[in-house]
Automatic annotation (TrEMBL):
Family membership noted in the UniProt record: Belongs to the UPF0303 family.
Xref: InterPro entries: PduO/GlcC-like (IPR005624), PduO/GlcC-like_sf (IPR038084), YBR137W-like (IPR010371)
Signal peptide interval: none
PANTHER family tied to this protein: PTHR28255, UPF0303 PROTEIN YBR137W
SUPFAM superfamilies cross-referenced by the UniProt entry: GlcG-like
Domain of life the protein comes from: Bacteria
Designated name of the protein: UPF0303 protein BIV23_28135
Length: 164
């Protein structure tokens, strides 16, 4: 009798406190057009290394500064990007953190936010672009993987970019 192949253990979801600590740590001194290009290009490279079928988007002050799609990404990923980015713009926190805060209260974003789920999605993958002494100026967003993996991909790229 052959042994079944073990399934990988899913990565545990970070706590609200861990997510908040990420946001305090991942802060820019400035965020220029060149920074958006370099960060977006880094995200493309990380996604390419993993053959991740994602779309990547960076917005600042309502303007799209970077967009790329990897093989396997679909137009639906762009719709998810817009919905997740709107959560960051409204709450000033990552889309995954916002959803986690609702779950920590025993509810869901969809049930309790009173926002249209066709417009807003508190699913992982959009992270605030926060500048020291300024605040949130934009968002970097990935869509195409399960929500925790989208979130972790963005965090990893930000850590590499900011060298923290």
């Amino acid at each position: 009798m052959t042994q079944p192949t073990p399934r990988p253990t899913p990565e545990p979801a970070p706590s609200v406190e861990e997510l908040e600590a990420q946001e305090r740590r991942l802060v820019f001194r400035q965020f220029t057009y060149d920074d958006a290009w370099a960060l977006g290009s880094l995200l493309v490279e990380v996604a390419r290394e993993r053959s991740a079928p994602v779309a990547i988007d960076i917005h600042r002050a309502g303007q799209q500064l970077f967009h790329a799609a990897r093989p396997g990404a679909t137009p639906d990923n762009d719709a998810w990007i817009a919905r997740k980015r709107r959560v960051v713009e409204r709450y000033g926190a990552s889309s995954y953190l916002v959803g986690s805060r609702f779950r920590a209260k025993g509810t869901t974003f969809e049930d309790s936010s009173r926002l249209d789920p066709d417009t807003y999605a508190a699913h992982g993958g959009s992270f605030p672009v926060r500048v020291e002494n300024v605040g949130v100026v934009g968002a970097v967003t990935v869509s195409g993987l399960p929500q925790l993996q989208d979130h972790l991909l963005v965090v990893e790229a930000l850590e590499r970019f900011l060298k923290v």
